[in-house]
Specification:
Beta-Lactamase, Arc Repressor Mutant, subunit A, alpha+beta, six-stranded antiparallel beta sheet, single chain, about 45% helix
């Protein structure tokens, strides 16, 4: 005989079901957003219950709340990231071995980034077994274009007008990253155009250097970027040069890629 579920389990399942109802209702109105009272009415929930569940969804970034202007709910950043990861799953599977090969030879950490509107999204990360703890970011994390070595490499490979639009659009977000400025981003882009790779020092994480190289499609356009990250102590000029040579060799061996499902 199967025991009936405990009251706490039943309550947990009910809360999950209600949260999914709210999430679906927000998604149906994502273009314009939807207010709390409208969500409560659409789902048949009490306003206080809807607010409690929505607050949890906001904390998990599954839902976003425009507190300053519209007072409406929209689908959140984390949910969008999960959708994007699913969209890119075939590319991620193909490039996992590519990243792992770079990590084995460099003893560093390798990230795969793809451009997404004004941001880059971390599509995958491979960590060297004995790499320092505490750096690896979760897959799906977004960074503004202009933050991180891979992002700099992507901007440097773009037509100048497009790069300028992206940097200008993100200018107000840069200060969150070690006091980064729009002018500093442009200096990094110009340096990357001259050297062929992006480089950042303690920009995303203290004590680390990142170097970024683009991966192109068969039309020569930058489709993605690989970033190799190591500690400041380890990434001497000699080791940085060696990491660049290794990453370039693997990119050449990989050949062109095409992210056919890339959002526009």
């Amino acid at each position: 005989m199967i025991d009936p579920p405990a009251p706490s389990q039943t309550k947990g399942a009910q809360s999950l079901h209600r949260a999914m109802q709210l999430l679906a209702a927000v998604g149906e109105h994502n273009v314009t957003g939807i207010r709390l009272t409208e969500l409560a009415q659409a789902t048949g929930l009490h306003v206080a219950t809807a607010h409690r569940l929505l607050s949890a969804l906001v904390r998990e970034q599954m839902v976003a709340f425009d507190v300053h202007y519209t007072k409406r709910y929209f689908l959140g950043l984390r949910l969008h990231s999960l959708v994007d990861l699913a969209r890119y799953s075939a590319v991620r599977a193909r490039l996992r071995e590519f990243l792992a090969a770079i990590v084995v030879e460099t003893g560093a950490i390798a990230y795969l980034y793809v451009p997404l509107l004004n941001d880059t999204i971390a599509l995958d990360v491979v960590e060297y077994p004995r790499a320092p703890r505490g750096l690896v970011s979760e897959i799906g994390r977004r960074l503004p274009m202009g933050v991180g070595a891979g992002s700099i490499a992507l901007l440097a490979a773009m037509p100048d007008a497009r790069a300028r639009r992206l940097v200008s659009a993100n200018a107000a977000r840069y200060d969150e990253y070690s006091g980064l400025t729009e002018a500093a981003v442009w200096r990094s882009i110009e340096e990357a155009r001259a050297t062929g790779y992006g480089i950042t020092l303690e920009q995303v994480a203290r004590g680390y250097i990142g170097i970024g190289l683009v991966i192109r499609n068969d039309r020569g356009e930058a489709e993605a970027a690989v970033t190799v990250v190591g500690t400041v102590r380890r990434m001497t000029p000699e080791h940085t040069s060696a990491c660049l040579a290794i990453a370039r060799r693997h990119i050449d061996a990989l050949g062109p890629i095409d992210l056919a499902a890339r959002p526009v």
